[in-house]
TrEMBL record:
Keyword annotations from UniProtKB, A to Z: DNA-binding, Membrane, Transcription, Transcription regulation, Transmembrane, Transmembrane helix
Protein name, UniProt field: AraC family transcriptional regulator
Family matches, as Pfam families: HTH_18 (PF12833)
Originating organism: Gelidibacter gilvus
GO molecular function: DNA-binding transcription factor activity; sequence-specific DNA binding
Entry annotated with the keyword Transcription: yes
Gene3D superfamilies: Homeodomain-like
InterPro entries xrefs: Homeodomain-like_sf, HTH_AraC, HTH_AraC-typ_CS, Tscrpt_reg_AraC-type_HTH
Domain HTH araC/xylS-type: 271-372
TM region(s), chain numbering: 6-21, 33-53, 59-81, 93-112, 132-154, 175-196, 202-228
Length: 376
């Protein structure tokens, strides 16, 4: 089993190296970098100490404290994916306070030999009484994983019914939702077993810790497996260039970012195309499809949308669709259309997405907008 932990650690550092070479790193990429670093260090540390883990209670407590990091990293990663934020909010640092406090507590306690005797995670009969503060940190550690898995899964499910759903034609993250659910259940079951061991001395501590680190190892391997299948996770852009690109354009744009006049030129080209051709009326429009129509690489189009328009692809397209809906509501030629009919004519493909997007971008519902118009 030790070899599996080392394999998982190697995979974590390998995927970390791929991410570090990714040219355009978004917020979720930066969070994943630190998350993989944590998982690589945690599994390697446990693999190196597994033989004397049960006989080193103070060291084992420090390693157990590492579990306070897994949940926050998972939740922050999913939050970054679903929110589309570009910068880390400093107030989010509070998610890591329990881990810092636990480690600080252990370091301070190490200066008091008699006090340290009561600090151990396994169930044994010993003269020293288990400190209440240590029990408090163990409880926090136990509930942290299940709570964060639940929060992450809830956040992911909310994105399914949102215009900002992270899965699209160019990248699909639905596997992440399944991974969160499965490992949330497994992780919670193992935590329950560990609690039962600590209180009732059932099962063995090795069974509990091996199970937790085994699940963490499998989690690393599966993240890497699905991440490599989804090109946007570990690299900056799709490996498949739009078919219509000429060799000259491939040479010019293939490995570079747009700067200066080239960025402005592409920005105006996109604006003109959106105004004249109205590609947003296509409900199946995707970033690669629009890039192919514009005869530019997908990553250049993404750069223009992100940097020049200050939004992601979904929001960029939805702004045009909402404006189209507002125009058609006021157009006499569409007076006999229902609001949903106008939405479908404007590129939306579901009622729930239409209502949500319209309210998010205008602050009012489609019917409220229609009712606010002066009657003819």
């Amino acid at each position: 089993m030790t070899y599996l932990f080392f394999i998982a650690s190697f995979n974590a550092f390998f995927f970390l190296a791929l991410l570090l070479h990714k040219r355009s790193k978004l917020l979720h990429d930066r969070i994943l970098i630190f998350w993989l670093l944590y998982m690589g260090i945690a599994t390697a540390t446990y693999a190196l100490t597994i033989d004397f883990f049960p006989n080193a209670p103070f060291l084992s407590s420090g390693i157990i404290a590492l579990f306070l990091l897994h949940g926050p990293f998972l939740y922050l990663y999913v939050s970054a994916l679903t929110s589309g934020r570009k910068h880390f909010r400093i107030k989010k640092i509070w998610h890591f306070i329990p881990f810092v406090a636990f480690i600080a507590y252990l370091l301070i306690a190490s200066n008091f030999p008699e006090y340290v005797k009561g600090i151990r995670v396994d169930h044994v009969s010993h003269e020293a009484e288990t400190p209440l503060l240590f029990l408090f940190f163990l409880i926090i550690t136990a509930i942290s994983g299940p709570v964060y898995f639940l929060m992450a899964y809830k956040k992911f499910n909310q994105s399914r019914n949102s215009s900002r759903h992270i899965s699209s034609k160019e990248v699909n993250f639905d596997w992440l939702g399944k991974l969160i659910l499965i490992f949330g259940i497994v992780w919670t079951a193992l935590i329950v077993i560990a609690v039962i061991h600590h209180i009732f001395n059932l099962f063995s501590m090795a069974f509990c810790t091996n199970g937790l680190f085994l699940s963490l190892s499998v989690f690393i391997i599966l993240i890497g497996y699905f991440g490599l299948k989804q090109k946007e996770v570990f690299i900056s852009f799709s490996l498949e260039e739009p078919k219509a690109l000429s060799d000259e354009n491939k040479t010019k744009y293939g490995t570079s970012r747009l700067e200066g006049t080239e960025l402005q030129k592409c920005y105006h080209q996109v604006g003109r195309y959106m105004e004249l051709k109205k590609p947003y009326l296509d409900p199946d429009l995707s970033l690669p499809k629009l890039a192919e129509n514009l005869n530019v690489p997908s990553h250049h189009l993404s750069q223009v949308i992100n940097e020049m328009h200050g939004s992601d692809f979904s929001d960029f397209i939805n702004h045009f669709r909402v404006d189209e809906v507002k125009r058609k509501i006021q157009d006499k030629n569409f007076q006999n259309y229902s609001l949903l009919g106008i939405a479908f004519e404007s590129g939306f493909n579901s009622k729930s997405a239409f209502n949500r997007v319209f309210k998010n971008l205008t602050g009012i519902t489609p019917s409220e907008f229609r009712d606010s118009l002066p009657s003819a």
